Amino acid sequence: MAMLGSVLHLSPMVLTITSSTSRSFLPKQSERTKEATSSSLKNCKTIDELRMFHHSLTKLGDVSVTTITKLVARSCELGTRESLSFAKEVFDYSEANVELNGSCFVYNSLIRGYASAGLCKDAILLFLRMMNSGISPDKYTFPFGLSACAKSRANRNGIQIHGLIVKLDYAKDLFVQNSLVHFYAECGELDCARKVFDKMSERNVVSWTSMICGYARRDLAKDAVDLFFQMMRDENVTPNSVTMVCVISACAKLEDLEMGDKVYAFIRSSGIEVNDFMISALVDMYMKCNANDIAKRLFDQYGVRNLDLCNAMASNYVRQGLTKEALGVLNVMMDSGIRPDRISMLSAISSCSQLRNILWGKSCHGYVLRNGLESWDNICNALIDMYMKCHRQDAAFRIFDQMSNKTVVTWNSIIAGYVENGEVDAAWETFNTMPEKNIVSWNTIISALVQESMFEEAIEVFISMQSQEGVNADGVTVMSIASACGHLGALDLAKWIYYYIEKNGIQLDVRLGTTLVDMFSRCGDPESAMSIFNSLTNRDVSAWTAAIRAMAMAGYAKRAMELFNEMIEQGLKPDGVVFVGALTACSHGGLVQQGKEIFNSMEKLHGVAPEDVHYGCMVDLLGRAGLLEEALQFIKDMPMEPNDVIWNSLLAGSRVQGNVEIAAYAAERIQVLAPERTGSYVLLSNVYASAGRWNDMAKVRLSMKEKGLRKPPGTSLIQIRGKTHEFTSGDESHPEMPQIEAMLDEITQAANHLGHVPHLRNVLMDVDEKEKIFMLSRHSEKLAMAYGLISSNKGTTLRIVKNLRVCSDCHSFAKFASKVYNREIVLRDNNRFHFIRQGKCSCGDYW
Ligand SMILES: [Zn+2]
Ligand SMILES: [Zn+2]
Question: CB count, 10 Å around CB of 316?
């Protein structure tokens, strides 16, 4: 019966046989029999042999405590689930029937066996049972018990065992202390681990390694490396390969190449044998530090016939976006006869999805199916991601539907896939129906909304995320939200986001910092933008660009130029984008000579060829300075065909200078290049109007009408106590419209009194003068201004964001309003900022 190998069938047999023989129990055995027993037990290599042995024992009537103990110990040593339950049955039965009062040794065997096999709950139960039967644990029991607690994260039980250790006075035993350090380190209680560690009077390599590995695994990589060097300095302990793997992985987490090199140099000089685990860790570390060449050398040197090493190599290539190289590693593996496992396949599938290569992706899917890897959730998730990215939603959903265990990662792959394919509605629907969301789900949907310019919706989602338990925003979330705030020009919200980042300890790296500089600059708060920029370490060109742009937008041209020069002095290589910032600053600040110098230095000094946009900046600069002829000549000398944006810059300059000829010429060019560009008609008609050429103006209007062109409606946003109010020109739907109208009348009267004359040429409609005055008075920025004045406290700055260029009437109106009501008005249009104080604007009436 025992040969059937079923534990269930065995129990009654053990029961019958031993009970029938227990009466013939012989207290004394000859020494000879004992020896025979021990040696034949040692020869038992399988559970069946153990059962045969047990069977023969009971036949012989040998059920002595010693023999039973040895049998239990041997069964535990085999370490299979079957041998362990056999051991426990023999033990349970004997304890009940043979008056075998379990000894400490037999418990130790059982607890160790169960803990090693990962049956930690049973091991802990055995420990408790031992306590209850009044048997005192010894220095071997504690480590086995603590190891079970560590593996099953049974923190409470472990702490109780610690108490017992102190009570029974084992706290000075090195072996026991090491187990405590290991237990606390594994459970993430590093302070407790360190307390035990610091109190130890003697420490060996195990003590140090437990502590170092504890730090390395818990994002305390710096502490891990520090402790390692302390160990090398202070104590005469030689690290082993486990220590080294932990230290190397800590260097990888720190992405500290210098430290990693130091550790590798130590390994080579210390004579520690370099094993496969260490090589994999080293390769991983060098790749995390972007030293791919060293990693590749190690990979080639130590042979490619190592699965872990290949996997480390491939997954790092994927992380770096070097997908072809990753697939190359897979090919090398196949060629040298190593079978890719699921970790290799994850790299392969993710490479295919990054490459959008459905053909290779399908062949990976085939390999997965042939090798039975489809039961792994993360493999299915990767396949879903791959099919979604390759626009094969049908295939993705076939896998999705078959998955019995859909995790949050699975759902996230679906959402990300929808977003990738531009189906934001479907992503939103899936997001709302998914059973459980994590930070990745929230980040995906928030960034999708921001990309779709649905800024307010993105912020709403972010706010509702705050009420979700256990979901905390990270750097990715706040980056999206900061960008949304910048677009909305919502300063209160921007300040709140910044406060949120500080309060939640979100790391302000250079990317997030740059986003915040940009956000504050777009919200018209250049001071905050600069204070964040000043706090950034490791500024890159993008960070400098954001700061220069912030200064340029706010009209601080000189400061912008100082920043630009500082950046060059610090040895950073300028790119095309930063030149746009610098030239814009010159243009807004009227720094003609400096602008020309910068433009000329682009190619000569910095090797950056000027593009359309840079030429546009120069035209703007010259036009603003009244050098229209020079600007026109500049356009004619361009090495490429000037586009409509460049002509529009010339047209804008002509409007300010009142140069009808050049304006008409520029407008003509624009109408050829970009006939849908309504702004140019408006500008041209303004030029004709100011020159009193009403016939030409009428022609412009007519040609607009014929082409079916309409100015897009102007909309203005204003933030009042954290809420965004949107006004569209002529729209009277705001609930407080009567009060807004009354306020508008009041401002208009005051402004007229001070000499404001409505700029009727801004109205491109065939209506009478009265109607024109009315239409002008309902421009969106005026509605927003009036609403701001009635709904905010005296003295507060009004911040308005307009979608189009602000018209000259609203600009003049705002200047009067700022004077009459003693308010600062910050008006952002699609071109620049207007900081309006006491009847004057920072733009100097040029925009
Ligand atoms: Zn207006
Ligand atoms: Zn202005």
Answer: 24
- The predicted structure's pLDDT at residue 275: 85
Q: Which ligand is nearest to the CA of 763?
A: 1
- Three-state SS across 527-588? HHHHHHHHHCCCCCHHHHHHHHHHHHHCCCHHHHHHHHHHHHHCCCCCCHHHHHHHHHHHHH
What is the distance in A from the centroid of ligand 2 to the CA of 17? Answer: 103
Would you call 422 helix, strand, or coil by DSSP? Answer: coil
Ligand nearest to the CA of 758: 1
The CA distance from 76 to 111, in Å, is: 9
* Radius of gyration of the CA atoms of the chain, in A: 39
Tally the residues of the chain.
847
Please name every residue paired with 826 in a beta bridge, in sequence order, or none if there are none.
Answer: 799, 835
DSSP assignment, residue 137? P
Q: Are 437 and 431 in contact (CB under 8 A)?
A: yes
Residue 589's pLDDT is 86
Unique residue bearing structure tokens 């950034």: 536
Burial grade of 659 (CB within 10 A; 0-12, 13-18, 19 or more): buried
**Ligand (nearest to CA of 727):** 1
Q: How far apart are CA 387 and CA 414, in angstroms?
A: 10
Residue 839's identity, in one-letter code, is G
Residues of the chain with pLDDT under 50: 1-32
Alpha helices in 716-845 (DSSP H): 737-753, 769-777, 780-791, 808-820
Distance CA 50, CA 677 (A): 91
What is the C-alpha to C-alpha distance for residues 640 and 635, in angstroms, rounded to an integer?
A: 9
pTM: 0.65
Long-range pairs for 226-230 at CB < 8 Å and ≥24 separation?
228/263
Which residue from 259, 180, 251 is spatially nearest to 221, judged by alpha carbons? Answer: 251
> Which chain residues have CB less than 5 Å from ligand 2, an ion?
834, 841, 843
Identify whether the C-beta of residue 611 lies closer than 8 Å to the C-beta of residue 576.
yes
Give dist(CA 436, CA 447) in Å, integer: 19
pLDDT value for 396: 93
- pLDDT computed for residue 33 by the predictor: 53
* Ligand 1 centre distance from Cα of residue 608 (Å): 39
Q: Say which residue the tokens 């260097």 belong to.
A: 251
β-strand partners of 802? 716
What is the C-alpha to C-alpha distance for residues 718 and 787, in angstroms, rounded to an integer? 9
The C-alpha atoms of residue 742 and residue 761 are separated, in whole angstroms, by 25
Closest CA to 518 of 510, 317, 147: 510
Contact in structure between 132 and 57 (CB atoms under 8 Å):
no
Domain boundaries, the chain: 715-841
Give the model confidence (pLDDT) of 776-788 as tens digits. 888 999 999 999 9
Give the closest ligand to the alpha carbon of residue 762.
Answer: 1
How many angstroms separate the alpha carbon of residue 86 from the centre of ligand 1?
A: 90
Tokens for 804, please give them. Answer: 């189009």
Nearest alpha carbon to residue 314 among 278, 275, 342, 336: 342
Is the CA virtual torsion 215, 219, 222, 225 positive or negative? positive
Residue closest to 352 by CA, chosen among 364, 368, 338: 364
**The two three-digit tokens of residue 381, written as one number:** 């998730």
- Cα–chain center distance at 124: 39
**String of DSSP letters for 315-378:** HHHHHTT-HHHHHHHHHHHHHTTPPP-HHHHHHHHHHHHHHT-HHHHHHHHHHHHHTT-TTSHH
CA–centroid distance, 811 to ligand 1, in Å, is 7
